[in-house]
């Protein structure tokens, strides 16, 4: 090849020089001697010096003491926490769990009272005495009939659950079935309806939960309706599933004694006593009747849509007369047979808080 101007000629390798191979082999080299970094020779000894052995013993003893004290602290804490939560055996009122459960129950009852006043009192009465709806504060009903399960079913299904009446005025209350009350409000309402009369609860403002103060500056309180010491009479019969069946003749009274058969007759001659029912109360509450003579009670029920009647019992609680129940506004004449001289009590079977006295002389 002809050399080009301006370029250096490439030297040619002599023919006798051997051709180099790739990669080029390296000549072997020895590792340069270097001093090793290691523990001193005495560290590799297989026997302990007396000082080292004593040190290990001291460290082990200290570790065991620390473990023992930590375990002791944990055991003491568990024992104290156990007694704090469950109480000291044989000493009442020392259980935190019981105290907290009671406090939550009080709160639930007080909230349930607010729900009842807002949603139920209009029909069942402020104190459960009844009105458009049946009585709720009757001890015979509260004993077994108005159980928590039964109350929840009524609130879920409405009044048709009680007597099978699809036209019942009692609406559905449970939110799960289209009502306005949620799960917590239902539980609080049931807690209030089942509360006992042993304890006074505080009436609280629904929005602030602060106690309501009356005109005298005192905290307003209320009590539950259920008497925990109530026991039905030995011959008492179960309360009927439908509350209206309780007023059919013959029927058991609250004390369990059989009631008198009722059949109001047209008013006849003789003494006529006028008694009026208004705002779930009798007017007047004290009347006189002649002894040994039949008389007539002209009963005027002025509570619109609310059923009332008059039932008369002697001092022993035995029913001597029971008038038919009828809703207002209406009037009925009850023909009462002759009674012996004495004091008699008359009540409304639907609303036992409606009472009065008849003096026969």
Describe what this molecule looks like in 3D.
By secondary structure, this protein is of the alpha+beta class. The chain is built from seven helices and 13 strands. The chain has a five-stranded mixed beta sheet, with no helix packed on it. The chain has a four-stranded mixed beta sheet with strand order 4-3-6-11, with no helix packed on it. Strands 1-2 form a two-stranded antiparallel ribbon. Strand 12 and strand 13 form a beta hairpin. Helix 2 packs across helix 7. The protein starts with 49 loop residues before the first helix and ends with a strand.
In short:
The protein is an alpha+beta fold. It is 27% helix and 15% strand.
Overall mean pLDDT: 82
**How many beta-strand elements?**
13
Radius of gyration: 46 Å
Number of helices: 7
CATH topology of the domain at 97-223: Cytochrome Bc1 Complex, Chain D, domain 2
Order of neighbouring strands in the sheet with most strands: 5-13-12-8-9
Strand content: 15-25%
CATH superfamily of the domain at 97-223: Cytochrome c-like domain
CATH class annotation of the domain at 97-223: Mainly Alpha
**Helical content band:** 25-40%
């Amino acid at each position: 090849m002809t050399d080009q101007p301006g370029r250096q000629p490439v030297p040619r390798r002599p023919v006798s020089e051997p051709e180099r191979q790739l990669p080029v082999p390296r000549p072997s080299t020895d590792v340069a001697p270097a001093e090793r970094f290691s523990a001193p020779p005495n560290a590799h000894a297989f026997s302990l010096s007396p000082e080292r052995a004593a040190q290990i013993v001291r460290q082990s003893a200290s570790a065991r003491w620390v473990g023992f004290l930590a375990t002791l602290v944990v055991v003491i804490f568990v024992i104290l926490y156990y007694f704090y939560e469950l109480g000291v055996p044989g000493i009442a009122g020392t259980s935190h769990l019981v105290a907290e459960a009671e406090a939550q129950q009080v709160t639930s009852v007080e909230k349930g009272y607010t729900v009842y006043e807002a949603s139920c009192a209009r029909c069942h009465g402020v104190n459960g005495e009844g009105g458009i709806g049946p009585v709720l504060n009757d001890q015979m009903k509260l004993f077994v009939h108005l159980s928590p399960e039964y109350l929840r079913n009524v609130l879920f299904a409405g009044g048709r659950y009680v007597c099978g009446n699809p036209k019942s005025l009692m609406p559905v209350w449970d939110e799960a079935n289209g009502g306005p009350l949620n799960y917590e409000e239902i539980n609080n309402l049931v807690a209030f309806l089942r509360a006992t009369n042993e304890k006074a609860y505080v009436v609280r403002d629904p929005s602030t939960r602060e106690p309501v103060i009356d005109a005298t500056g005192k905290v307003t309180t209320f009590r539950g309706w259920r008497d925990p010491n109530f026991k039905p009479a030995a011959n008492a019969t179960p309360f009927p599933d439908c509350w209206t069946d309780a007023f059919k003749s013959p029927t058991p009274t609250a004390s369990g004694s059989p009631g008198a058969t009722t059949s109001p007759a047209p008013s006849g001659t003789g003494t006529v006593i006028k008694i009026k029912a208004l705002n779930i109360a009798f007017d007047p509450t004290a009347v006189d009747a002649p002894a040994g003579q039949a008389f007539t009670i002209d009963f005027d029920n002025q509570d619109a849509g609310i059923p009332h009647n008059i039932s008369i019992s002697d001092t022993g609680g035995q029913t001597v007369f029971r008038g038919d129940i009828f809703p207002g506004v209406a009037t009925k004449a009850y023909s009462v047979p002759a009674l012996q001289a004495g004091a008699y009590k008359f009540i409304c079977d639907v609303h036992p808080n409606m009472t009065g006295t008849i003096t026969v002389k």
